[in-house]
Design brief:
By secondary structure, this protein is mainly alpha-helical. The protein has a domain at 23-263. It is 72% helix and 3% strand. It contains 15 helices and 4 strands. Helix 3 packs across helix 11 (265-277). The longest helix is centred in the first third of the chain and has 30 residues, at 13-42.
Length: 363
């Protein structure tokens, strides 16, 4: 009789890959053909300056940006167990540093210098915040990071040198290549794939095992000899760099930066996306970010016609989304993916009872 272990080992490599990465591979394939699929359906060019395909590429870039921000937040919250309310600090820093360099230098040089400066600055900022605050526990650390992010928000909102409340545009400062929506779309897709694979590889490494150990029981990790502060500092800094990359993409999509990039929304949203999708899962934050962003966009634009009157559902979008969020949390207490991962073995076992040949094999 075959055991599950020997059955898995006998599967060919391509089948094992599909079993472990099937959802991600399907999502990647969909993204690669997305511009041309929408173009074929709508009859518009995916490489043009405007049209339905170009518009939907922008929408998908926004969804992927939110998904990447949620993935970076999940690295510290879901995998390390550190809750932060200052993630927007790194997101906004990425946009402003890239924008400032692009305005000062212009063209490809400005973008390249901006990317390098943003990554270096976010690394230093993450290390500084971590060193100063990591000895704080739980809500105290969360409040400290929130206070730092709000300081940056107020500074850029009131600083006339950076455009105050309006921020500043990047249109004329960016190279012409990045003005093509399809180029930015595939750049975002590539970075999205690389970020997912990088986080997945990290969490299956010895370092990832230590981070998970810290999440489960930090005192036990200390007892066996790990410097937990150093590992948490690494996770916070790395998550900050990934959020900075996301902020740069967001600035390129909107072709402007503003102080709202430092606002608490860009911390709370990835937190909610992670909770809905599944804390400490790989696909969960992506599903939560894309799903909730799509729901918000859909609800905002929904108008119901009842007889001769029209009801603008969009004006109550926040209330409706809040009700949906509460319902999802109640139905899926571990997030959609987390709950499925826990329930799937039991579902498969129940289904297998009705499959032909099972009783004969077990006998």
């Amino acid at each position: 009789m075959q055991t599950p272990a020997t059955s898995i080992q006998q599967k060919p490599a391509w089948r094992r890959t599909l079993d472990t990465n099937g959802v991600f591979l399907l999502w990647t394939a969909f993204l690669l053909i997305f511009p041309f699929l929408v173009g074929a359906i709508s009859g518009t060019s995916p490489t043009g300056r405007r049209g339905e395909s170009v518009f939907q590429q922008g929408v998908m870039i926004e969804y992927l940006t939110y998904a990447m921000l949620a993935m970076s937040y999940n690295l510290i919250f879901g995998f390390t167990g550190v809750i932060s309310f200052g993630h927007a600090l790194f997101f906004g820093a990425g946009g402003y540093i890239l924008g400032g360099a692009a305005r000062a230098l212009g063209g490809e040089t400005g973008v390249i210098v901006g990317v390098v400066l943003a990554i270096v600055a976010s690394t230093g900022l993450g290390l500084l915040i971590g060193i100063v605050s990591l000895r704080l526990k739980g809500v105290y650390y969360a409040m400290f990071t929130l206070a730092v992010a709000e300081m940056f928000y107020i500074f850029f909102r009131r600083n006339p040198e950076t455009g105050s409340e309006d921020g500043f545009g990047l249109g004329s400062s960016l190279p012409e290549l990045l003005g093509q929506r399809i180029v930015l779309f595939y750049l975002t897709v590539i970075l999205f794939i690389l970020m997912f694979l990088f986080i997945r590889r990290l969490m299956f490494s010895p370092t990832g095992a230590v981070l998970l150990g810290i999440r489960e029981n930090e005192n036990r990790a200390k007892t066996v000899g790990y410097n937990t502060l150093r590992y948490k500092l690494f996770a916070i800094t790395l998550a900050g760099v990934l959020a900075t990359i996301t902020g740069m993409l967001y600035a390129l999509l909107n072709r402007k930066v503003g102080p709202e990039m430092f606002f608490v929304n860009f911390t709370v949203n990835p937190l909610l996306h992670t909770i809905v999708g599944g804390i400490g899962t790989f696909i969960g934050p992506i599903l939560g970010a894309v799903g909730l962003s799509w729901l918000e966009r859909t609800i905002r634009s929904t108008v119901l016609t009842v007889g001769e009157s029209q009801i603008n559902i969009g004006q109550w979008w926040a209330i409706i989304l809040g009700v949906i969020f509460v319902a999802v949390v109640l139905i899926f207490p571990y997030g959609v993916v987390g709950t499925w991962n826990r329930a799937a073995p039991h579902i498969r076992k129940w289904i297998s009872r009705f499959l032909p040949g099972r009783n004969a094999e077990s006998g």
